[in-house]
Hints:
By secondary structure, the chain is mainly alpha-helical. It is built from seven helices and no strands.
Amino acid sequence: MSLDKCHLKNDIIIPALKEIGLHSESAVNLLMGTCAQESHMGKYTRQILGPAVGIYQMEPFTFNDLFERRKKYLVKANLDLSKRLTAERLVTDNKLATIMCRLKYLDAPEPLPDALDIEALGQYWKKYYNSYLGKGKVSEFVKNYETFVQMD
């Protein structure tokens, strides 16, 4: 079942990004596009024939790496770190999935593109999230953004 785009944006992405101090319109639109591209707004929370999970389809290796390197952001988000979080939690915890997705983009050396330049957001996604090895295409990102995010 897909997430309502207004709920995702206003109740999950914006509050989560503000909580960790990484909110911007560009970040919001990039994460909306990433969710649209990776899981069709939450329709798929487990990758078919792959290890990625959650609404942003993050792989466990990436989750574990970010968990260790970016723990200060997880502390800011008031997440209970008394027990080890695993990537499996991304399937049901959209706040955590959103934070981890934003932290993945935080590793990119370039600043986020303009919030309204969907093509540039797609290029950024391809370069820093999907990678040149990934099967995704910028044109798919743009199409899915238009389909799932700008459908009004």
